[in-house]
Amino acid sequence: MGNRKKRVVISVLIVLVIIAVSCILNVPANKIKIVLNIWGDEFKENSIQALENESAKERMHGVIQDGVFEDSENEIVQYTVKAFGLPSAGAYYGFYYSPNDVPAAFQNVHCTLKEEGENHWSWSNDGASGITYKISENFYYYKAKF
User: Fold this and answer.
1) Cβ density class 114-146: b for 16+ within 10 Å, e for less
2) Which residues pair with 68 in a beta bridge?
3) Euclidean distance between the first and final Cα of the chain, in Å?
4) Over 52-64, what HEC string results?
5) CB contact at 8 A, 93 and 82
6) Which of 111, 23, 12, 8 has its CA nearest to residue 69?
7) Which among 3, 48, 84, 142 has the fewest CB atoms less than 10 Å away?
8) What is the pLDDT of residues 99-123, one digit of tens each?
């Protein structure tokens, strides 16, 4: 194989690798796992600060903190990684920190979580629906649709 053909083959392979990596990182669940594997301790500390009403960061490593959401029994600190569509008719992807290590619906709205499998739940409430599952200790993935 000539030098020119080798360069073309190598260039094509590099482009394919870049496309594959982009596709993997573009899936919100994959991005969240990578973010928490790298910066999980920082997100935990930031979440604890938010729960204690201290000066928590609103944006970290490309992730937006939505705030602290409480119900009568639990509270969570929710982060958004990706959002599509209009606020009233879109989809949101992210994760939340649960200090009591219990699952919750989007923004901790009061509704019943239906167990769909080990550490995996679904919910629906007033036309909205979503899923949540455990990623690691105190951290959960969410997907919400409106």
Assistant:
1) eeeeeeebbbeeeebbbbbbbbeebbbbbbbbb
2) 77
3) 55
4) CCCCCCCEECCEE
5) yes
6) 111
7) 3
8) 999 999 999 998 999 999 999 999 9
